[in-house]
Amino acid sequence: QVQLVESGGGSVQAGESLTLSCAVSGDIFTRIIMGWYRPAPGKQRELVARISSGGITNYKDSVKGRFTISRDNDKKMVYLQMNNLQPEDKAVYYCNSSPSTLCAWGQGAQVTVSS
User: Fold this and answer.
1) Tell me: the pLDDT tens digits for 30-70?
2) How many CB atoms lie within 10 A of CB 15?
C-alpha cells in the first residue's frame, strides 16, 4: 500500500517562503503524475500543482510564478517550493497522485501565512 508523508509546513509572514516535502512509499511512484492539493471552497481539495514522471509541470493560476513543484524519482520525493506566500495560501497541503487520487491521504502539512 502506498503511503504519503508530508512535511515542511510552518508559520510565515506574507512574502516569505516555505518548502514542503512529500515522501512516497511504493514502486508506483516513478510511473505516476504527482500533485500538491489544498482545501478549497466548495471542493474537498483543489490541485495546486502537479508534475509528471518526466518533469512536466502544471500550476493553478493563482500560484504560477510563486510555487515550484519538483520531484526526485530516486528518493521517491515530491517538493513544493512556495515563494512570496500570501494569506490566501494558508491551508493544509497534501500530496497525492493526479488526476485521480490513487493513494490514501496523508496527514498534510499546515501552512499559515500572516499579513
Assistant:
1) 889 999 999 998 888 999 999 999 999 999 999 999 999 99
2) 11
